Amino acid sequence: MEYPKLYSSIEKLKEETTPKWGRMNSSMMLKHCSAFVDVYLNKTKLNPLIFLVGFVFGIFHRLYLKYIVRYNVKNYIKNLPTLKVFNTYRCENLDFEFEKNKLINDLKEVESINNKYLLNNFHGIVPNEAFKKVVYFHTSYHLYQFDVYKT
């Protein structure tokens, strides 16, 4: 995991950059990635049903990423639906620079975590390395979607 590669990819992104697929614009994508990190860092509280579903889904999702996708953004399914907590389609008038800086700061926070395990309100107890890999993969996948992350 090369977090500096994520930061430089984010810096290459422009407000007018269009995705290779999907309907998010670049500001929505940045906000979406930050929302993902916020959930993983327990900054966003989920209702108990989402927590239960997320816990079960999370185990299978991490196995899917590790053994099927092999953490390769080119192998991941495109245009999957997203949970409401991560959905940014209805967001209007987003400040691109604010969203860009927020995501970079969120990723720096993730990168700096040194605990062996994290208690996550989406997946339960997660090893630090798995936590960082999932956040890295999700962000790199969307930066790849906007053609600023090169594998």
Topology:
Elements: H1 3-12, H2 26-40, H3 48-69, H4 96-112, E1 117-120, E2 124-127, H5 128-145
Antiparallel strand pairs: 1-2
Helix pairs in contact: 1-4, 1-5, 2-4, 2-5
Note down, in words, how this protein is organized:
The protein is 54% helix and 5% strand. The protein has one domain. The longest helix has 22 residues, at 48-69. It has 151 residues and is mainly alpha-helical. It has helices spanning 3-12, 26-40, 48-69, 96-112, 128-145; strands at residues 117-120, 124-127.
Q: Name the overall outline.
A: globular
Helix/strand/pairing category: mainly alpha
Q: Roughly how many Å apart are the termini?
A: 12 Å
Radius of gyration: 15 Å
Proportion of residues in helical segments: 40-55%
Please sum up the structure shown.
The chain is mostly helical. The chain has 5 helices and 2 strands; from the N terminus they run ααααββα. It has one domain.
Which features characterize this protein?
mainly alpha; globular; 151 residues; 5 helices; two-stranded antiparallel ribbon
